[in-house]
């Protein structure tokens, strides 16, 4: 009786000093995290890192979404427990094989992290017998128990936090790998002289020799080479120099000193904002993954191969795009005057859309985060020997695949994506510096506003002309007297607007 009375203690009979201490700790931790994010945002603003600042705002949005999910679970916890279903429906699609109820509960939580904290029993804030016995009195089972709601809450939080951390680590490691290209950019800038271009045979270019000449007789070898190339030296200096020159000659021919390296970094930081968030379709994947976690299927083991296969396919495709660029030049020219110029095009990418690569990388990072979050969630909640873990022979390969995929994505796929996706038909707005982007946006808004005023003026004049038809002779005469001056003003305004439109 003493144990049951202790478990059922309510707020009215809880010492105020305990409530105050717990609330103080929670508030202090929350304020510390909020201030930390605030000062990090100010630091990024001071360093003119707007893309990273936007990514930080995206992280705050994810945290706000987590808070809203937590609120929904807490508010509707009692309501969910009062949704009763037939007991026979709870026997299908179980993650663990059902045993005796007492034996199952004891085995399930005996080695969990929470059993150590609460002294061998899991005690939740809202686990009153009056609510939990509501469906039992009707001979039915609740839709979700208090324990399941609590575990689901922890899993969603762990998944979101792990995804954000993995995305940040991938960006940092990728930036560290790309940093060596900065030296290539500086050396190219120094060697860019005004010498008279000479005629060179196309096969003498290192880019053509390594990317096309070896495999021009058999196309399948080109794909095999692209597959293995992503594991070592995925981008060489000749690749960087050729793609840089092709980009400049296609999109900014008048600026041969264009810093291609800084442009790639700005574009990558802008894409990071999209990768760090959890989109609605990724939440659908979470629901599907939870649905398929059925005992005996080992579906998580097979799903863990999907991101690795996608990662290898994306890396192979990106490498093959570089080979295609070399092939296009080699097949069209036998000799070239000056530097080798490639022709960037969307035709080299899947469905002619380079953005698909970003979507696939986003999904790969999310799936890796799901594997790691699920592992630590099961480990800390139910223990390593839990039946949900799936056995050592299944969980260890999953963790290894997730870690290998994360490393490959950081050091190979992400740098490849950063440079190869610039070989599309169009460029990104990151081609302009931040202050230039802001000036262009302000200018475009003014142009749109002037266009709207001009259209509104023309519409009012046309409506006014229609009303003149039915006007009196005196009003018509007065309007005709004012027409010459109005026309002069209108012509001046139209001329100025036309110049703005041309600009």
From TrEMBL:
This is MLO-like protein. Belongs to the MLO family. It comes from Dioscorea zingiberensis. May be involved in modulation of pathogen defense and leaf cell death. It holds the Pfam family Mlo. One of its GO terms (molecular function) is calmodulin binding. The keyword Membrane applies. InterPro entries: Mlo. One of its GO terms (cellular component) is membrane. Keywords: Calmodulin-binding, Membrane, Pathogenesis-related protein, Plant defense, Transmembrane, Transmembrane helix. The lineage of its organism: Eukaryota, Viridiplantae, Streptophyta, Embryophyta, Tracheophyta. The C-terminus contains a calmodulin-binding domain, which binds calmodulin in a calcium-dependent fashion. The chain crosses the membrane at residues 17-41, 62-80, 152-173, 272-291, 297-315, 356-379, 399-420. It is found in: Membrane. It is a multi-pass membrane protein. GO terms for biological process: defense response.
């Amino acid at each position: 009786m003493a144990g049951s009375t202790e478990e059922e203690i309510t707020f009215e009979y809880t010492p105020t000093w305990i409530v105050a201490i717990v609330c103080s700790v929670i508030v202090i931790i929350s304020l510390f995290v909020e201030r930390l994010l605030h000062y990090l945002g100010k630091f990024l603003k001071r360093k003119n890192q707007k893309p990273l600042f936007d990514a930080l705002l995206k992280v705050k949005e994810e945290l706000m979404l987590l808070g809203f999910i937590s609120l929904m679970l807490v508010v509707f916890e009692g309501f969910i427990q009062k949704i009763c279903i037939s007991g026979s429906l709870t026997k299908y699609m179980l993650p663990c094989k059902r045993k005796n109820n007492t034996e199952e509960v004891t085995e399930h939580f005996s080695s969990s992290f929470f059993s150590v904290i609460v002294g061998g029993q899991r005690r939740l804030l809202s686990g009153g017998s009056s609510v939990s016995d509501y469906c039992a009195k009707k001979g039915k089972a609740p839709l979700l128990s208090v324990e399941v709601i609590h575990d689901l809450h922890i899993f969603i939080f762990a998944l979101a936090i792990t995804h954000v951390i993995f995305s940040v680590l991938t960006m940092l490691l990728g930036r560290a790998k790309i940093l060596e290209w900065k030296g290539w950019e500086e050396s190219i800038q120094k060697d860019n002289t005004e010498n008279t271009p000479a005629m060179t045979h196309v096969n003498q270019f290192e880019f053509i020799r390594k990317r096309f000449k070896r495999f021009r007789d058999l196309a399948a070898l080109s794909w095999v080479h692209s597959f293995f190339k992503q594991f070592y030296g995925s981008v060489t200096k000749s690749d960087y120099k050729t793609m840089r020159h092709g980009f400049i000659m296609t999109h900014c021919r008048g600026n041969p000193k264009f810093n291609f390296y800084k442009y790639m970094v700005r574009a990558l930081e802008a894409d990071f904002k999209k990768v760090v968030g959890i989109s609605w379709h990724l939440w659908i994947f979470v629901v599907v993954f939870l649905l398929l976690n059925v005992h005996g299927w080992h579906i998580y083991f097979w799903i863990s191969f999907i991101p690795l296969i996608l990662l290898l396919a994306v890396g192979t495709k990106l490498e093959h795009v570089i080979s295609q660029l070399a092939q296009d030049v080699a097949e069209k020219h036998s000799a070239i005057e000056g530097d080798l110029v490639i022709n960037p095009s969307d035709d080299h990418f899947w469905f002619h859309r380079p953005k698909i690569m970003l979507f696939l990388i986003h999904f790969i990072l999310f799936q890796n985060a799901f594997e790691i979050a699920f592992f630590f969630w099961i480990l800390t909640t139910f223990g390593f020997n839990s039946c949900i873990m799936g056995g050592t022979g299944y969980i260890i390969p999953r963790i290894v695949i997730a870690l290998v995929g994360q490393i490959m994505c950081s050091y190979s796929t992400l740098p490849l994506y950063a440079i190869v996706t610039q070989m599309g038909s169009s460029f990104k707005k990151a081609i302009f510096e931040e202050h230039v982007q802001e000036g262009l946006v302000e200018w475009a808004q003014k142009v749109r506003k002037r266009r709207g005023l001009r259209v509104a003026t023309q519409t009012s004049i046309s409506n006014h002309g229609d009303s003149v038809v039915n006007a009196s002779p005196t009003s018509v005469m007065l309007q005709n007297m004012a027409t010459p001056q109005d026309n002069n003003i209108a012509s001046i305004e139209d001329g100025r607007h036309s110049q703005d439109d041309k600009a």
